[in-house]
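FORM 7B: Structural annotation worksheet

SECTION A. Query
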Amino acid sequence: MSTLGSNRQSGQAGKRRPRLRRAQCWLAAALGFALVAPACADAEKAKAIVANICAACHGIDGNSTIPTFPKLAGRHPDYIVRELKEFVGGKRKSDIMAPICAALDPDDFKSLGAYFGAQKPTSGTVLDKKAAEIGEKLYQDGDEVRGVPACGGCHNPDGSGNKRFPRLAGQHREYLIEQMVNFQKDIRNYESARLMREVAKRLTDDEIKAVAEYLTGL
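SECTION B. Predicted structure
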């Protein structure tokens, strides 16, 4: 092959390469948009559901101001999805939440979990410091003599929770007390709540209040 022919082919290949790179960039951008667009749509739909349905009880940012309704901000998305499914399936009983969850599209549960999980949680104010100190010891150390495990072993020492166990830090004391009493009295009696039922039954009413007092201030 002559040098001239070789130069021509090199020149043509050199012209094609920028075009190929541009085509690759356009394709990557198109694929990226295809991935991002549904996510954005899901996020916007979740915001609309929260504004129209959830905010009245749980707050627009998941920080409920009503002490009998839980704060959802900062909870692990997977835990929120599981809760919603349990309300629909009847495992967890609630005259308020069951019909609301049943009316939602199950495909939206994940989006709602992501929305609330991304919100910044707030803390409450400790009103009884002495009770909070008692609650802290129980939460962090448990009571070996009575077989009470440290709450932080499941819910994390800082109360942040995880995909299996809910965030407790900053939660309303009233809500926490109500739920622990529900465990204690077997009102929350489904299989996955067995551990909490056993723990709650080993605590006195004053100890339940003390743990709730400690957690609300985290």
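SECTION C. Observations
The domain at 5-118 is CATH 1.10.760.10 (Cytochrome Bc1 Complex; Chain D, domain 2). The radius of gyration is 26 Å.

SECTION D. Sign-off
Analyst initials: ____
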